[in-house]
Structures are given as structure tokens and as C-alpha cells.
Amino acid sequence: MTDKIPSSSLDNSLFTTTSKTTSTTQIITPNTSENITTPIPSLPPILSLKTDWVFKWMFGQEKHKPLLIDLLNAILQGKEPPIIDLTFNNTEQIGEQLDNRNVIFDIYCTTSDNTHLIIEMQNIKQPHYIDRALAYGITSMNKQLNTQSNWHKPLEPVYVISFVNFIYFEKDSFISHARLNDLDTGTAISSKLNLIFLELPKIKKKSVRLSA
């Protein structure tokens, strides 16, 4: 059987449902007539994608890269060009000085057009998680500065995409996208640093259409 899930929506069952057999998710792309099918590895019933190491196992391996690309394209639809390919980067970012604390991301990758993506799964509520996500994005941007000798080359976009298993924002939508905007006009000053939060408790399970 094939589970058909529109790429423009996310289903909380992706983070709660387990299966003893390998299934296939069929992602329906809105701008093409063709469907993209990506095998979903099976998980033992006691495991959940809301656990960070399970999340990293599912989406942070080279052999599961097509699954991560499908997930990211669903989230970034309308914000960035469709991701064709990406490269996994070292998730541990070394501090600039000996007394600096190292930063370890869940998943850190770069797309073929040099967009930097940091993907985090946060299961336990933290009162200052937004500060942490902001620091992660700044860390990635700072690494870009270290590779450039001057300011003649622009910075590449950075997205910190956080799946959080708690309610953070007082609104109905489960997805929030923040970047540097003018407070008076609301227009974007820079789109280089982006924070995206997906509040999993707000995602309602939807009926899944099955086909033989």
C-alpha cells in the first residue's frame, strides 16, 4: 500500500506512527503531475521520531537523504527553490577559542545552491529555545565569515528548522517563520537568517488515503 501525503502539509502521524514493515510515502508535488515516492524505514513500536537520536537516524543518514529532501521541500515550499540535492556537514561546530563551548546540531546540511540548513528536534520544552535556535543560525553564518577574506561576497542563506514538541506561539498555525524585518513596515531587511518553528502538538492527524 502507498500513503499519499500532500507535500504542502505535514502530518503529526509522521512523528507518532510506527510500523513493523517498511512503507512508502507518496508525496504529491503541487506544481508537477508526477509523484515522488520515498521509502520510509520501519521503526520498532517503542521508538518515536520525537526522540532526537531516532530523528537523526531517520533523516540524518546519506541513505535516507531523499526522505529529508522531501520533508524540507514541504516545509520550504514558496520560500526557496525546490531542493534537488544536499550535502551532510559536520554537526559539531568547534568554538573559536579554547574556553568556547562547542555546538552540536542534530542535522546540518547544505543544498546544491549553498543554502545552509540546520534541523533540530526538541522534545522537551526549554524556556529559551528561541535564543538557542538563533545562536545556531549565527554560528553557521559566522563559519561563512571565517572562509571569506572580505565583504565582496554575500552570505549564503541559513535556515534553522526546529520541530518542537510543545506550544510556543499563541496562534492556530503550527508553523512560524521569523527573519529580520522592519518593525514599522513589516518589509524584510534581510532574508539571510531564518528561523522556522514547527509546533508538533498543533498538527492534527489527517485521514490517510490508501491505494493498492
UniProtKB/TrEMBL annotation:
Origin superkingdom: Bacteria
InterPro entries, per the entry: RpnA (IPR010106)
The name this protein goes by in its record: Transposase (putative) YhgA-like domain-containing protein
Species whose genome carries this gene: Pelistega indica
